[in-house]
Design goal:
Chains A, B: Keywords: DNA-binding, Transcription, Transcription regulation. The structure is a homodimer. By secondary structure, chain A is mainly α. Helices cover 69% and strands 6% of the residues of chain A. Chain A has helices at 3-20, 25-35, 43-50, 54-67, 89-115, 126-155, 158-169; strands at 41-42, 70-73, 82-85. The longest helix of chain A has 30 residues, at 126-155. Chain A binds a DNA duplex through residues 24-26, 43, 52-56, 58-59, 62, 79-81.
DNA sequence: TCAAACTTTCAATAAAAATTGAAAGTTTAT
DNA sequence: ATAAACTTTCAATTTTTATTGAAAGTTTGA
């Protein structure tokens, strides 16, 4: 396979993966393009390679910078901005985990905390209330577990990350 | 807070969480409703509680059954079908992990495998090709890691799951 | 076999999300 | 201060995705 074809396929696949995980196809494609581009790209470069508009590039590149996985690069003597993707995949994963924890895990944990305090009432039997409280409690435990796992992975340095997980993957006697 | 209000809020929150992770809001809401309903519900019950059409209920309930987190329940002497959600959250998590691994992780791994074989060409410098190969290689390693982690968690029984992760969360000396 | 009681399908419609492109805004050099 | 070279915004539009509802299909009991 030719390099260009391989890049095209990667960009397409990464876009599909993104949309399955709630990231817009184009945002994932811009990310993919920056991942496989050794140097930094200008807005025009991205427009041309992905065949999308200027506004769209600007929107998605800024979103990726919010996630911390794309950086703006300024070149002396050049007025326009260039963008480059974080190339360390471990760091990319960590940054994404961090953002998703903040944006999605924490909000649902807040809701769980609020609704876990149901008061007894005339319209619901004590059994119904108890069943609900128990279900919410078990979801809370799971969410807490996921939150702690996420924050540990985020804090961990790469070596710890790898070695702990390698142990995890090959449980001994 | 009243039980009804708490359920309403849970259904809303679960729907929001779902859409952030690429699951349709309604599918997540049907799942949430079944999670907090002690007994099994009929199509009509779901239609009424979520204010959605019959076709929509049917579609989403079948999708949830595909994921393995909702079951059809037949009652002797009743012609219509009832649906109940898997109540064990650990099992719910396991089943979702299993499906996502199959539907999303494996396809991207296939793509990575295919594009990792780039041939040298006249239109690309050897440096460009090498940079690409290296990037894809590191994504492959990460994907392999994620895949192995997922399959280990899927195979693991609950006790192992909890205890391993609890150790992971409190690393000793 | 028929008809009642359901479930499923799917073309049409509605709703949501992404995209465009042109105008407005900003920065820099002269 | 002005103009050139950019970036950003946002209302309008397009595209995608979800939803409806009525018709078709299926199962069951008499």
């Amino acid at each position: 396979m030719q390099l260009d074809e391989a890049k095209r396929r990667f960009i397409e696949g990464w876009g599909t993966l993104g949309s399955a995980w709630g990231v817009s196809r184009t945002m994932a494609q811009v990310h993919a393009l920056l991942l496989v581009s050794p140097g930094a790209l200008s807005t025009e470069d991205i427009m041309e390679q992905l065949q999308i508009s200027r506004g769209n590039v600007n929107l998605n590149v800024r979103a990726l910078m919010d996630w911390g996985i794309v950086r703006k690069e300024l070149r002396p003597g050049e007025r326009r901005e260039f963008f480059s993707g974080e190339k360390d995949i471990h760091r990319v994963a960590t940054l994404i985990l961090q953002e998703r924890r903040k944006r999605e895990l924490q909000p649902i944990m807040r809701v769980l905390g609020e609704i876990s305090e149901v008061e007894p009432s005339a319209t619901a039997t004590p059994e119904e209330t108890a069943a609900f409280t128990q279900m919410i409690g078990s979801i809370q435990s799971f969410a807490n577990f996921a939150d702690r796992a996420a924050s540990t992975l985020i804090k961990a340095d790469e070596n710890w990350f790898l070695s702990t997980f390698m142990k995890l993957m090959r449980p001994g006697p």
